[in-house]
């Protein structure tokens, strides 16, 4: 290979897998999926949106099942995606391909933070399982752990007396 490092499984027809997430503004994952490493991210946009569970907001009416606004990176900047999102009542805020960085979209890096939390779990950083369904189960378990951490931290900040009863060292 003449001084070139090991190639990524995404670059060639070898086994590999990708984690796909859709998260809300506080980096809590709403839906996750697992695909082969050679699939483009944009193929999972609408299956992930469809996988978002209904969320009660405490108000009247039906629970909300889709976001009002969707922020995405340049990989999702296709006119057909924008049209399909508008048809579903979702306002797309997608960074334009070819536009200079610093447009304000993607400043927060919420999804990358959630991926860092997920890949901090060793079982998800390196795939040890041969079967995809088992690895996807670990992915969903990791999503649940992240959501639980958010709930516990939120409750703890609302009532600090909970620290007497909770061991927060593992969070």
UniProtKB/TrEMBL annotation:
GO terms for molecular function: DNA binding; transposase activity. Residues 11-141 form the Transposase IS4-like domain. GO terms for biological process: DNA transposition. InterPro entries: Transposase_11. It comes from the Bacteria. PANTHER family: BLR1914 PROTEIN, PHP DOMAIN PROTEIN. This is IS5 family transposase. It comes from Actinospica acidithermotolerans.
């Amino acid at each position: 290979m003449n001084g070139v490092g090991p190639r990524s499984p995404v670059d060639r027809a070898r086994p590999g897998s990708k984690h796909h997430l859709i998260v809300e503004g506080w980096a809590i994952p709403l839906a996750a999926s697992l695909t082969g490493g050679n699939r483009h991210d944009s193929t999972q946009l609408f299956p992930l949106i469809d996988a978002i569970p209904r969320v009660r907001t405490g108000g009247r009416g039906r629970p909300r099942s889709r976001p009002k606004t969707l922020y995405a990176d340049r990989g999702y900047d296709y006119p057909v995606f924008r049209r399909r999102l508008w048809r579903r009542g979702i306002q797309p805020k997608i960074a334009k391909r070819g536009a200079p960085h610093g447009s304000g979209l993607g400043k927060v890096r919420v999804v990358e933070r959630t991926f860092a939390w997920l890949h901090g779990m060793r079982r998800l950083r390196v795939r040890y399982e041969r079967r995809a369904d088992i690895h996807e189960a670990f992915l969903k378990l990791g999503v649940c752990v992240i959501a639980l951490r958010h709930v516990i931290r939120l409750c703890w900040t609302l009532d600090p007396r909970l620290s007497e009863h909770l061991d927060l060292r593992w969070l």
